[in-house]
Amino acid sequence: MKTANTLKKKSVLLLFGLMLLAMSVLFFGKGINADAAGTKATLKDKTLTSEYGRAYCPITIKNWNPKAKYTVSVSPADSATVGYIYESSEDANNAEIGITVNKKGTIKVTVKETVNNTTRKVGVCTIKASTASEDSGVFLPPVTYNFQKGQTYNINDLLNSSSVESYKFSIADKSIATINKYGVITAKKAGKTTLTIKKGTDSASTDIEVVSSTFTAKESKKITQLKSKIEALYKKKITAGNYTSWYNEYYALSEEWKKYTDYSNFYFQVNGRYTLSDCCKKLADFMKTRTSNSAYGASLDAVKITKLTSNQVSLQLAKPVSRADMVNILRGSGKYSKNAKANYTIVLSRTDGKYNYTYTFIAPVKEGQKVITGKLKYAGKYTINPPYKNYTLKKAEKGKTYTYTLRFAGNSSMTYQKRTIKCS
Q: Are strands 118-132 and 47-52 parallel, antiparallel or unpaired?
């Protein structure tokens, strides 16, 4: 019989090996707990200066633990946007947290680390943002945007900034169209004019044209009603007891809205003060409190990939998929119910020095599952130098070792964790 001491030694060796293999863990994701934190992580800088607007200000964690769960809070809450934690390219013992500064002023960023259910404060970094960012200027594609008479259009998504108040809007001919401080254009009569957006000393202009409405009186009335419902939903508080019904209402309005969306004019869509995008963000912010995810998606609390064959992969979870996970994973793709299913993406990759290989598996997920199985949907390789020649593959190769990346459902650019596995 193996002694407790022997088992403990083997466990420590196994965990140490996994630690070396760990390459990156999203700080909002639920990382696998380590048996020991090792050298305590600290923040490299207690104070930093930054520009506001869309300025990027990385905070360095010295001696970070890839297996720990890191949480970051910002005060004031709307003063900055927290990005991801990733291994430093200069020193593998350090990691960086991406912070985007939204407003002028003093910002306090608090970082905490959780290992084996024990949480401690890593440190507090104070960011002083006093000048406008050089790259926070305004860009408008040199095209003419068309609007329909009598409708409103919200251009906030085009600005790519949470601080709408830092922009100033104007329209040359106010008899054709007007724009308010929230970036909502109201098309008044047919004609052409110029829209100008300013931020600091930078500005950009584009031509806009108002055309006769193609909607019938009945459709126009329906659009007005939808706007009112969307704004009412945005103002409705989300709670632990109603977030599923709130989500279903959001989903229903999204489906109805598609009938009146002009996809040929991507940036400017018929909309009001509060948009479906605003509702999506509000839901995402609430879901952080339920799942600790940083975006409108879900990183399931994975333990390990238990099996990999040429066209199938099985993933064991630490705990069953929760109701909140399902709402996140659905991401507007379907109505929530106890039996709802949505797809989760698992990506495998490897390199042999000449080629990069990528394999994408899609795993149907349902509430209550603890093991999810994905089938291969895409396999390909491309040359590393030059990185432009692509080849389509049909399966993962037996005997090869792959790095697998667990990703947010619906957003393949956000990495949750990386480990390695051999194809059987």
A: parallel
For residue 300, what are the contacts with CB-CB under 8 A and spacing of at least 6?
Answer: 315, 317, 321, 325, 344, 365, 372, 406
For residues 273 and 47, what is the distance between their CA atoms, to the nearest angstrom?
Answer: 37
Query: How high is the pLDDT of residue 280?
Result: 85
How far is 223 from 256, CA to CA, in rounded Å? 10
Contact 326, 317 (CB under 8 A): no
Query: In this structure, what token pair is assigned to residue 413?
Result: 């650019």
pLDDT of 34 higher than 50: no
pTM across the whole model: 0.61
Residues 423 and 313: their CA atoms lie apart, in Å, by: 9
Report how far residue 153's alpha carbon sits from residue 208's, in angstroms, rounded to the nearest whole number.
12
Q: Tell me the pLDDT band of 22, cut-offs 50, 70 and 90.
A: very low
CB-CB neighbours of 106 under 10 Å: 13
Query: In sequence order, what DSSP letters do the residues of 365-421 get, joined into one string?
Result: EETT-SEEEEEEEEEEEEESSSTT-EEE--SPPTT-EEEEEEE-TT-TT-EEEEEEE
